[in-house]
Amino acid sequence: KAGVTQTPRYLIKTRGQQVTLSCSPISGHRSVSWYQQTPGQGLQFLFEYFSETQRNKGNFPGRFSGRQFSNSRSEMNVSTLELGDSALYLCASSFSPSGQETQYFGPGTRLLVL
Amino acid sequence: TQLLEQSPQFLSIQEGENLTVYCNSSSVFSSLQWYRQEPGEGPVLLVTVVTGGEVKKLKRLTFQFGDARKDSSLHITAAQPGDTGLYLCAGGGRSGYALNFGKGTSLLVTP
Q1: How far does B48 lie from chain A, in Å, by closest CA?
Q2: Distance CA B39, CA B107 (A)
Q3: Residue A79 contacts B where some CB pair is shorter than 8 Å
Q4: Given B43, B97, B101, which is nearest A99 (Cβ)?
Q5: Which of residues 24 through 53 in chain A touch B, CB cutoff 8 A?
Q6: Chain B residue with minimal CA distance to A110?
Q7: What is residue A3's predicted lDDT score, i.e. its pLDDT?
Q8: pLDDT band at B95 (very low <50, low <70, confident <90, very high)
Q9: Would the pLDDT of A99 be above 80?
Q10: Angstrom distance (rounded) from CA A27 to CA A77
Q11: DSSP tag of B26
């Protein structure tokens, strides 16, 4: 069974631009979560989608948004990029949104904002 | 927000040594997970502990969940270079699914 895939793997943008990242979960998984990882803050939860509905949202500004499609693939969008948005963005999938459900992480998209 | 503090932040040891890393919080967690992340990859789940006082062993790795479910430790026996990576603990709260991660312990095991 293929793992979680994320595209692109690397991205360079400039301040003020917007970016869209994509995540394809493991086949059969319906829950997708997004995290931002930085050296200073570690892994921080962005949002979680299940069956095309946002179930949970972390403490990030409205510039960060996401959506999930009927095939469970998910995208996240960051508008008006800031230097501080440079980070590794990780997507994780699981079968259901259970508190003890195992999450499987993708390799991440490394975003650099210049 | 439930905060998880991990210590030490960095650890550099030689092959064959033993080590323990810690994950502490002032909050109670319904479950706690340990992940290992290697450079250029996403975190990979090592173990989930759910019962206070629980001890789980995974080959040379021993995980313990505190009796009060506020803290956990990871002990590695006879560390090997393949154990090198970032070890992350994450707690799941009762009210939601979102995992709260600690900042991790970066482990380097040299031959």
Answers
A1: 8
A2: 12
A3: no
A4: B97
A5: 31, 33, 35, 41-45, 48
A6: B40
A7: 92
A8: very low
A9: no
A10: 23
A11: S
